[in-house]
Design brief:
Elements: E1 7-16, E2 26-31, E3 38-39, E4 42-44, H1 51-63, E5 68-73, E6 78-81, H2 84-87, E7 95-105, E8 120-126, H3 128-134, H4 140-152
Parallel strand pairs: 1-7
Antiparallel strand pairs: 1-4, 2-3, 2-8, 5-7, 6-7
Length: 156
């Protein structure tokens, strides 16, 4: 098996509030299966599905709305390894290979994390500086790279 095949194809979203660009408030959600772990919404890309199709499907599945505007895309795949505790439930994968998008909630978007299969038990909007303080340690490097890219490109 090719090493690339050991990483699950995934899409992830940095969601900014509809106050963007005046305010750069970033959506974080607290996982319901890991204590005090906050993250960006993300999810697998199904076979035959485009990255954008997965993005809108995952938004609907995880936060109850796909009412967003895509602002920008991180230009390449970025990967991370699962911690041991998570890896045993994700076989045959050892991590995720992700495409990141910066998206803005539409004015009429209604977030509802009580979806058919809830993954989160809470959410909040935080400043850029708080994202890394609250996020899972195994995702910090990826989050930092992606956030720094969007900052360098003047989107955050």
């Amino acid at each position: 098996m090719n090493k690339k095949d050991l990483y699950r194809p995934n899409v992830a979203m940095i969601i900014v509030s509809n106050n963007y660009p005046q305010k750069k408030e970033i959506f974080l959600a607290q996982r319901n299966d890991l204590e005090d772990v906050w993250q960006f919404p993300q999810g697998g890309i199904d076979s035959g599905e485009s990255i954008l199709e997965a993005l809108f499907r995952e938004l609907e599945e995880e936060i109850g709305t796909a009412a967003v505007e895509v602002i920008h895309e991180y230009p390449k795949w970025i990967s991370y390894d699962f911690p041991t505790k998570i890896a045993k439930n994700m076989k045959p994968f050892i991590g995720q290979r992700q495409r990141y998008f910066l998206v803005k909630l539409n004015k009429d978007a209604k977030i509802n994390i009580e979806t058919k299969h809830p993954e989160f038990n809470d959410f909040k909007f935080v400043g850029i500086e708080d994202v890394l303080k609250l996020s899972a340690s195994f995702k910090k490097d990826v989050y930092e790279k992606v956030i720094n890219y969007f900052k360098k490109e003047d989107f955050l």
